[in-house]
Amino acid sequence: MTMTGATADAAKIPADATANSTSKIKVEKLSLTKDWDKVFAKSDKVDHKKVCFVNRYGITLAADMYTPKNATGKLPAIAVCGPFGAVKEQSSGLYAQEMAERGFLTIAFDPSFTGESGGYPRFVASPDINTEDFCAAVDFLSVQPNVDADRIGIIGICGWGGMALNAAAIDTRIKATVSMTMYDMSRVAANGYFDYEKTEEQLRAERMQNRRNLNAQRTADYKNGTYARAGGVVDDPSDFPQFVKDYYDYYKTERGYHKRSLNSNAGWNATSGLSLMNMPLLCYTSEIENPVLIVHGDKAHSRYFSETAFENMTGAKRSGWDTVSGNKELLIIPGASHCDLYDGGGKNAIPFDKIESFFRINLR
């Protein structure tokens, strides 16, 4: 049996239209400051340099790397991020530098779309992409010649405490996780603050109204050709609850103000809450096999996020200041507010000795 030329051509397998597409990881050239513009003093015990790495979505992230001076051999490493709406020159950099002084190679990075990192449009939050940012940091640390790829941990602060737990649930290379003064950003976006005080009917009604407002804002943004901003921390907190005053004291004063921080300035894009509202972050934390330390202040308005996360992860309820269940631990700091765990709050509230011990035991 023979085939005509036309029929034979039709029977050929089509050419691969993706053959000339590249899968190469590309690093975007970022504009990185050469100045030491942190809100904390530079340590003479560590070496510091700027580095970049790329996440799975092709976004180039900017980070500060801190290495113990005169360190030799392959070091345990820690990636740090947070708080939500902050930059690496604030709390995460402080943590990274302190842990480097204690012998770890560390990086503090700006999340996608913020700070010195790439990504467009600017000032967008994403539960998926921001979780991936932590995993991309592990990619980067894993291939550094002075890092032991089997001894990598992460620290997430505030909203990135939740992202850290989400990353630990998917990335088995993360050998130990510390979550500090955690916010579950998907929960607060969906339910608002203090959802345990509300009925299910109230929560549903609030979510629906929030959806209407945010989707109306999407239409307005597209019509206007620009993304409206939600606003950062208020300029006058006098008529607000104490936790807002605490945010003001950190983000709006010399203590923690930074020109690239969203919370210090005009805030996130107003519609960022939509994806957070619709995609719960902590669905699979009960499947995290590696060790986790969750730390919160007992005076923090946000403490319930950490207590619920610990209970969902372990099935155990808090039973004192320090509750341990298997290789998971919830540590409550007496007298500490939410923002006290950003920089110590002037009373050394950050339990760095405990954090160091946790990583020493679990990154070996």
Description:
It is built from eleven helices and nine strands. The chain is α/β, with parallel strands linked by helices and 364 residues long. It has a domain at 46-184 and 282-362: 3-Layer(aba) Sandwich (Rossmann fold). A nine-stranded mixed beta sheet has the order 1-2-4-3-5-6-7-9-8, with helices on both faces.
The first-to-last residue Cα distance is 69 Å
Average the pLDDT over all residues and give the rounded result.
95
CATH architecture of the domain at 46-184 and 282-362: 3-Layer(aba) Sandwich
Helix content: 25-40%
List the helices and strands and how they pair.
Elements: H1 5-11, E1 46-54, E2 60-68, E3 75-81, H2 91-101, E4 105-109, H3 127-142, E5 147-157, H4 159-170, E6 176-180, H5 185-191, H6 200-224, H7 242-251, H8 273-278, E7 292-297, H9 303-314, E8 322-325, E9 328-333, H10 340-343, H11 352-362
Parallel strand pairs: 3-4, 3-5, 5-6, 6-7, 7-9
Antiparallel strand pairs: 1-2, 2-4, 8-9
Helix pairs in contact: 3-4
